[in-house]
Amino acid sequence: MARIMPYRYCTHVTLATGLLMAGATASAADIQLSLIGAPAGGSVHAELIALPVDDWDGEPLMRLQSDSDPYFADVAPGRYAVRLFIDRNGNGELDTSKRGVPREPVGFSGNPQLVDGMPAPEATAFEHGESSTLLLIRLRQDRRSEP
Q1: Which residues pair with 96 in a beta bridge?
Q2: What secondary structure does DSSP assign to 69-129, as a single string?
Q3: Residue 45 in contact with residue 65, Cβ under 8 Å?
Q4: What residues are paired with 50 via a beta bridge?
Q5: DSSP helix/strand/coil, 60
Q6: Digit-coded pLDDT (tens) for 40-68
Q7: Model pLDDT for residues 94-130, shown as the tens digit of each residue
Q8: Which of 95, 112, 123, 129 is 20 to 30 Å apart from 15, CA to CA?
Q9: C-alpha distances in angstroms, 110 versus 33, 58, 83, 115, 120?
Q10: Could you give the CA distance from residue 81 to residue 102 in angstroms, rounded to a whole number?
Q11: Residue 11 pLDDT > 80
């Protein structure tokens, strides 16, 4: 009898752990980014952050670099924000003017106005559920910096 009980206990724990892991995996879904006004050439550099946070300075939950159809894979349901830029010159960085104005196209989830500079993450928040989310992101660029 002593042998059966630990075996049952182990089977039960393993089964429960497996069910929890399967449930967590099943609820994760992709976040697809559809860019409006994307210039030809250059790669997309995007960051996904989990909210709430006060600013963009922390480590993002995910980063991606893509030449086409950018998406974040297997993201758990929650509240998030996305910021991105198109790296037109291939240096891996967002180029800005001396005053900090982006010289390459930038975009944020929620498409906030950029009149006062970079928006707070809460101004770009969106809810991601158990099925895939499509974000339409309008790219903005200072007209004086276009080629």
Answers
A1: 102
A2: S-EEEEEPSEEEEEEEEEESSSSSS--B-TT--BSS-EEETT----TTSSPPGGGG-EEE-
A3: yes
A4: 80
A5: coil
A6: 889 999 999 999 999 999 999 999 999 98
A7: 999 898 889 999 999 999 988 888 899 999 999 999 9
A8: 129
A9: 12, 20, 10, 15, 11
A10: 19
A11: no
Supply 43's token pair: 């790669």
Residue closest to 81 by CA, chosen among 111, 134, 124, 41: 124
DSSP string, 114-145: -TTSSPPGGGG-EEE-SS-EEEEEE-B--GGG
Predicted local distance difference test score (pLDDT) of residue 38:
86
Looking up tokens 């670099």 gives 65
Q: What's CA 142's distance to the chain center, in Å?
A: 24
Percent of the chain with pLDDT over 90: 63
